[in-house]
Specification:
The complex is a heterotrimer of chains A (323), B (429) and C (183). Helices cover 42% and strands 14% of the residues of chain A. Chain A contains 13 helices and nine strands. In chain B, helix 2 runs parallel beside helix 3 and helix 8 packs parallel to helix 10. The longest helix of chain B has 18 residues. Helices cover 31% and strands 26% of the residues of chain C. A five-stranded parallel beta sheet of chain C has the order 3-2-4-5-6, sandwiched between helices. In chain C, strands 1-8-7 form a three-stranded antiparallel beta sheet. In chain C, strand 4, helix 4 and strand 5 form a beta-alpha-beta unit. Chain C is globular, with a radius of gyration of 16 Å. Chain C starts with 5 loop residues before the first strand and ends in a 5-residue tail after the last strand. The chains are: A alpha/beta (323), B alpha/beta (429), C alpha/beta (183). Chains in contact: A-B, A-C. At the A-C interface, helix 1, helix 12 and helix 13 of A face helix 3, strand 4 and helix 4 of C.
């Protein structure tokens, strides 16, 4: 039996196999239960040092990672290196060298530039988890979305999932597209053409230009947050118009031929991309996603902590022999 | 000065439609004779060019030598040395230095440094606008007097159509071309690579082909309006090639160049966020590469120019978004031309020489580009069949930013002669 | 592996007899069934714990709480041997405070599994007493841990493997010693 490994880093779902993705989802199952315990902590990563390196403001992703790390007993340090590239002062190369010199075990990084996680991973021995790089990928979000769909609908493969909104600037969209395609879901994207990246069809997704068509087609909608600065940049005329034309509203959902599951990576703009009645309604699994986020991140950290497939194989033999 | 007799080489001179085994005799820095069985004058160096190609030295209309301002990346001397090593006998240095080459004194400095380099000839290109700010015309007259051969705001497009019109009109008085970097900066919108399936997958901001084509079309229309000579730099898209083809068919005074990287690479080279593949204009799609090659074949694109853009190692060693645009090109251009265009069946070797020497010298009115009797003795001798692997560590250039490391090229420069003086000779092995 | 190297320590009736003795001792250890909680270690310990629970229900008429534990996350060797591919379920059905928890496992060997199990139990509550029962004690302890109740004992060499087979997973009940089975 060959034992699956994630390798050294988690940079994106594009680079994982179906089996690796399923391994992470399966590994997340027992970690859900850990978070339900009175003492929500296991000693698995005791003595490991993890740096949460955030070059972009993020509350929920950082907190979710931090909970995951602490529940695995890792020592964590948060570094908020905010600011524009000009103000950064220290280059990412120097940051990497410094982290390496401090002998840390893992880095969770969020960065405004696509490819930054890969850049870091190639320059340090520590494990790197991509917590979102520019418009490229946000793999743990893609994984927790899939886990939530699987929890609710029993499977992911074979389902029709449509990602709605600002696909152009969205790393969540890209991680969802890769992850969902790999596990065998049918994937579509829907949004204004001005927020649709060129050549997206070449990734193997269907493109819907109208939200009504997406709702008619899909089993699951993953509704992306619309960054309000897109309006200032001239991609859309106004928030109001966006809501009227592309908003996921109760009225639109009521016309759907089947019950839809509604995901949203948060934080939501109520009355912009999503109707409050939908966000708080029975279709919505948004809080379930948040819960699953911690379990997925625990699973990823756990699987990367060993990271050596040959050792995992040996460990399996020992466990069998011992118990 | 010691005469030189290049004996028995395949002499290729597109200016005289010559392609055959012959000797070339250089006396007093000029071409004395081209013919069979020439005898060496007393004291001449006789160079056995058997199985080698002998051609007019290559002429690069578009290089960035970084001096003054960024001598850590390149200087006029190292750039001219790299040019000589690449078989170039003349290069045109773009004015986006720091400070900008936008006045007579600044031009004089480049000329002086170029002369001192004793390598390839260095011809300055002056800025179109003061500080390349796109507002006020620079003093073309003064700069021409100091030695510029063209004007350009390269690195930046001239956004104002009015200013571009004025520049084209005003340049006519001096008989110099206006070289333009064609890009609509609003449409490029901070893009860092070609807009297409690869940028979508990598999550990088894309530059659509139309960003270049809009300005190509505008510049052709303005050249038509003014009768001025517009030279369009580093053409990268199939749409641009077609627009230029149509413009030339209408008799517009437009010339154009393409770079080796745009005929040799596609946007796929950006995979893995390789900052050495980050350049402006960006690497495009296969159909664009094909169109550029066809454009070079049918003459729509007049010249191959390197857009040699050296950058210090540290400045490319960073996130793709933050890395500077540009690639070094002087020492790989001939090898790429032979490997991709000649071996690839697009151009004959004489056609390649025409695109890299005769035609560029012609459109910027430079000496060289020919082996006619009496012309300056700017000559390259190269082995057109020899394959070699690109090793950036061996570059003469101060910088190493190339996406071609490890690639096998064909066409090995043996000797570069400028004004009768050998400025580069390959190490014997 | 040839059959000659495989030696039966307990056959199916032997396993049944051992479990009979064990269940009696478990109830005695806990002073009755009232405060008893059985916790099986994944995977075969969980099956054995379930058997004991059935036997208690049949004999004493009490449904004792039955839990399962996967101790993977409490192991001390993640750093050296890497992660297990899949972490099993941990489910403890009742509050453990003031209970008598009987840990059930198939083989007791180095004691490291039991160390991890006790660490994990401590994170779930404060039992009045924790006991350990195993079907086989094969010796070779690396920690000062002993079982309170043992089905059978064997002095196995470090190279040997002690194989516990249960009907639920393996289709038959047996305890077998495989000489040189660990290499």
């Amino acid at each position: 039996m060959t034992v699956l490994s994630l390798g050294k880093d988690l940079l994106g779902l594009e680079y994982l196999t179906k089996e690796q993705i399923e391994l992470i989802l399966d590994t997340a199952e027992p970690f859900k239960e850990v978070s339900e315990r009175t003492i929500k902590k296991v000693p698995t990563l005791r003595g490991k040092t993890i740096v949460n390196l955030f070059f972009e403001a993020s509350t929920r992703t950082r907190i979710s990672f931090e909970f995951a790390e602490k529940r695995l007993s890792a020592d964590t340090v948060n570094v908020a290196a905010l600011g524009s590239s000009v103000q950064k002062g220290e280059s990412l190369v120097d940051t990497a060298r410094n982290l390496e010199a401090m002998r840390i075990d893992m880095v969770v990084m969020r960065h405004p530039s696509s490819g930054a996680a890969k850049f870091l991973a190639e320059r340090i021995r520590s494990n790197v988890v991509n917590g979102g790089d520019g418009m490229h990928e946000h793999p743990t979000q893609g994984l927790l979305d899939m886990l939530t769909i699987r929890d609710r609908l029993g499977k992911v493969g074979g389902l029709k999932v449509c990602i709605c909104g600002d696909i152009l600037h969205s790393r969540v969209a890209r991680s969802n597209v890769w992850g969902l395609l790999k596990v065998g879901a049918d994937v579509a994207v829907c949004g204004p053409q001005s927020l649709m990246p060129g050549g997206i069809e070449e990734l193997g997704v269907i493109v819907f230009r109208r939200i009504e068509e997406a709702i008619e087609w899909a089993d699951v909608l993953n509704v992306l947050r619309l960054q309000l600065e897109r309006m200032e940049a001239g991609y859309i005329p106004s928030i109001g118009e966006y809501y009227r034309v592309f908003g996921v509203t109760l009225e639109r959902l009521e016309r759907a031929p089947r019950e839809l599951l509604i995901l949203h990576p948060g934080p939501m703009n109520r009355g912009v991309e999503i109707d409050s009645r939908v966000a708080d309604g029975p279709h919505s699994v948004i809080l379930h996603q948040v819960t699953n986020g911690v379990a997925i991140r625990m699973a990823v950290l756990y699987l990367l902590a060993g990271g050596k497939p040959e050792l995992a194989e040996a460990a399996k033999g020992m466990q069998e022999a011992e118990t | 000065m010691r005469p030189v007799l290049l004996k028995g080489g395949r002499v290729i001179d597109p200016s005289q439609d010559h392609d055959g085994i012959a000797d070339v005799l250089i006396v007093d820095g000029r071409i004395e004779a081209l013919g069979k069985n020439l005898s060496a004058p007393d004291g001449a160096e006789v160079y056995d060019a058997t199985a080698k190609a002998v051609a007019p030295g290559l002429v690069d209309l578009h290089v960035h030598l970084r001096e003054p301002g960024h001598e850590d990346a390149e200087t006029v001397a190292t750039g001219a040395g790299a040019a000589a090593a690449g078989g170039f006998t003349a290069v045109c240095a773009m004015p986006n230095t720091d400070p900008v080459t936008d006045n007579q004194a600044a031009v004089g400095f480049i000329v002086k440094q170029g002369t001192a380099a004793r390598a390839a000839r260095v011809y300055p290109v002056g800025a179109i606008s003061l500080g390349q700010e796109g507002k006020q015309l620079a003093e073309f007259g003064g700069m021409v007097a100091a030695g510029i051969v063209a004007v350009s705001d390269d690195g930046h497009p001239v956004v104002s159509s009015h200013l571009m019109r004025t520049a084209l009109e005003y340049a006519r008085s001096f008989g110099i071309p206006v070289a333009e970097h064609c890009e609509d900066p609003f449409l490029s919108g901070g893009g860092v690579m070609h807009e297409g399936s690869v940028s979508t997958r990598l999550g990088l901001r894309g530059v659509p082909s139309a960003s270049e084509e809009i300005m190509v079309a505008r510049n052709i229309l303005l050249a038509e309006l003014t009768g001025g000579h517009v030279h369009l730099c580093h053409i990268s898209t199939r749409g641009s090639v077609e627009l230029i083809r149509q413009g030339k068919a209408r008799g517009v005074n437009v010339t154009a160049e393409a770079t080796p990287h745009h005929f040799a690479l596609t946007h796929v080279a950006c995979e893995g966020y390789d900052t050495n593949a980050k350049m402006n204009p960006p690497l495009r799609e296969l159909a664009d590469v094909e169109a550029v090659r066809e454009g070079l074949k049918d003459g729509t694109l007049d010249a191959i120019a390197t857009d040699h853009a050296p950058h210090h190692y540290e400045s490319k060693e960073r996130e793709f978004d933050d890395a500077p645009f540009g690639v070094v090109g002087l020492e790989t251009a001939l090898g790429l031309g032979v490997a991709e265009l000649v071996a690839g069946g697009y151009l004959s070797l004489p056609e390649l020489i025409a695109r890299m020497s005769t035609r560029p010298a012609d459109i910027f009115h430079l000496p060289g580009g020919t082996l006619r009797r009496g012309a300056v003795a700017d000559v390259v001798v190269f082995d057109a069949d020899r394959e070699w692997v690109v090793d950036p560590a061996r570059f003469r250039s101060k910088s190493r930013n190339t996406p071609f490391a490890g690639r096998t090229l064909r066409g090995w420069v043996e000797r570069t002669i400028v004004g009768g003086q050998t400025v580069f000779a390959a190490e014997r092995d | 592996m040839s059959p000659s190297e495989r030696q039966t320590l307990l056959d199916a009736p032997g396993v049944a007899g051992a479990l009979e003795r064990i269940v009696q001792q478990v109830v005695e250890f806990a002073g009755g069934t009232e405060r008893l909680v059985l916790v099986g270690i994944q995977r075969r310990g969980a099956d054995l714990a379930q058997r004991l629970a059935h036997m208690i229900a049949a004999r004493w008429g009490t449904a004792v709480p039955l839990g399962v534990m996967d101790i993977t996350l409490y192991r001390d060797d993640l750093q050296t041997v890497g992660p297990r591919p899949i972490v099993g379920e941990t489910r403890l059905p009742v509050d453990l405070d003031h209970r008598c928890v009987m840990i059930v496992d198939d083989v007791l060997y180095t004691g490291r599994t039991i160390r991890a199990a006790m660490d994990q139990l401590a994170d779930f509550g404060r039992p009045a007493r924790i006991g350990l029962c195993v079907l086989v004690d094969r010796g070779g302890r690396e920690l000062p841990i002993q079982a309170d109740i043992v089905g059978t004992k064997v002095d196995a060499h470090a190279d040997d493997m002690v194989d516990v087979l249960v009907n639920e997973l393996d289709g038959r009940d047996a305890v077998e010693l495989v000489k040189g089975g660990k290499t």
